[in-house]
Design a protein that fits this description.
The chain has 69 residues and is mainly alpha-helical. 59% of the residues lie in helices and 12% in strands.
């Protein structure tokens, strides 16, 4: 496993050693990572809600009376 001093991150096509980042920059990076994880979690929840909505809509359509003209 790579040591922390060997870990690198690429931002705007520039590679940085994590150990070269200031404490503030490392904190900002953690914030970005937390935000990205939360966005992934929310996208998963959105996909689940959309799937449920589609199932409810199909069940509703199946339960509607037939339209007579």
């Amino acid at each position: 496993m790579a040591e922390k001093s060997d870990q690198k991150i690429q931002i705007n096509n520039v590679e940085y050693n994590l150990s070269d980042l200031s404490e503030n920059a490392q904190g900002q990076l953690r914030g970005v990572q937390i935000a990205e994880n939360e966005m992934k979690r929310l996208n998963t929840q959105l996909a689940l809600a959309q799937t449920a909505r589609n199932a409810y809509m199909q069940a509703l359509q199946d339960d509607l009376p037939e339209k007579t003209e």
